[in-house]
Amino acid sequence: MSNAVEIPFSTTLLVRDTCLCLHVQRAARALARLFDDALRPVGLTNGQFSLMMSLNRPEPPPMGPVATLLAMDQTTLTAALKPLQRRGWVNVTQNAKDKRRRLLSLTPEGKAVLAAAVPIWETTHASLEEVLPDGDMGRLRRDLQALA
Amino acid sequence: MSNAVEIPFSTTLLVRDTCLCLHVQRAARALARLFDDALRPVGLTNGQFSLMMSLNRPEPPPMGPVATLLAMDQTTLTAALKPLQRRGWVNVTQNAKDKRRRLLSLTPEGKAVLAAAVPIWETTHASLEEVLPDGDMGRLRRDLQALA
DNA sequence: ACTATTTACATTGATATCAATAGAAATTGG
DNA sequence: CCAATTTCTATTGATATCAATGTAAATAGT
Predict the structure, then answer these.
(1) Is B48 exposed, middle or buried (CB count within 10 Å of its CB: 0-12, 13-18, 19+)?
(2) How far apart are the first and last CA of chain B?
(3) pTM over 0.85
(4) Confidence band (pLDDT; 50, 70, 90) for A57?
(5) Chain B, 70-129: which have a CB under 8 Å from a chain A CB?
(6) What is the average pLDDT score of chain B?
(7) Does residue B50 contact residue B118 with C-beta atoms inside 8 Å?
C-alpha cells in the first residue's frame, strides 16, 4: 500500500500564480461574461457574435476553415450552428461541387442582428483599453496569437 | 420594411483581428486542449486540475472563494464538483458553524491523482515558454490578470 | 424575540466544448 | 475502373458554462 500523498502548499501557490492555462481560462470566463452581458439585448453571446461575424464574407465558407479560425473543434461548430439556424440567422447549404461540404452564410435577419451588435461590440471593446495596464492591447493579442 | 443590411467586410476583418474576447477564447480553447491531452493519462482535464489544486490547502475552503479564485460562476463550480465527488477525489462537507457553507477538501485518492498530475503540468507548462515570442510569460500573465 | 434582508449554495434549462465514433463523398494507387 | 485511403461533417455522451430561480441558514433592524 502506498503512503498518503501530500502536495506541498508551495506547489499549489506556484500553480495558482504561474499557470498560464488557468490565467487564460479565468480571463476567458470574465471576458465572456462581459460581452455576453453587453450583447444580451440583441440576443447574442460573445461566441455567437464571433461566429456570425466570421461568416460575413463575400463567399460563404465551409465549416472546416471557420472552425480553424475560431480554434474550436469541428463538432463544437456543428453544435454552435444549431441555435443560429433555428432562429433563422444562419443558412447551411450543401456545396454542389463537393457534397461533403456545408456552406455557411448569414440570412438577412442574421445580418440585421449582427449589425445591431457591432456598436455594442465597439463600446465594450473600447472599455477594455482602459483596463489594461499600459493600454497596449496589441502586445497582448500577439502573445495570445502565439498560443492559438 | 427595412432594407437589407450589409456589414462591411472591413468590419469583419477588424473584429477578427482586434477583438480581445475572441483572441482570449481562441487561446483558452487551444490551451485547454493542450493540457487536457497531457493530463488525460491521469484522468483529469485542465479545469479539474486547477480546481483540485486550489483545494490543496491547510484549511478546506468554502465554495464562494474558490469560485472567485477561478473566476467562474458559483453554479459552474457546483456542477464541476459532481464528477470529482463521484470518483471519490473530493469531499464536500457541511460547516458546523455555518450550515449554509460547504467545505471542499481532497481525499487521499484525490491527492494521489493530483500528485501524479503535477509533473505533467510542469513539463507541459515549460513547453509554453518556448512558444511565446520573447519568453516573457510574466508580462502576459499580468495583462490577463487585469482582465479577470 | 421577530421579521426583513442578506448570504451561501442547489436546481433547471440552454448553450459550449471536445473525444470517440460513424457516415458519406472525394481522392489516390494500382 | 476499383479498392483503400483521406476528407468533411454529424451524432452521441460526458463535462463546462451561465442565467434565472429557489431554498435554507445567518444577520440586521426594530
Answers:
(1) buried
(2) 43
(3) yes
(4) very high
(5) 70-72, 108, 111-112, 114-115, 118, 121, 125, 128
(6) 93
(7) no
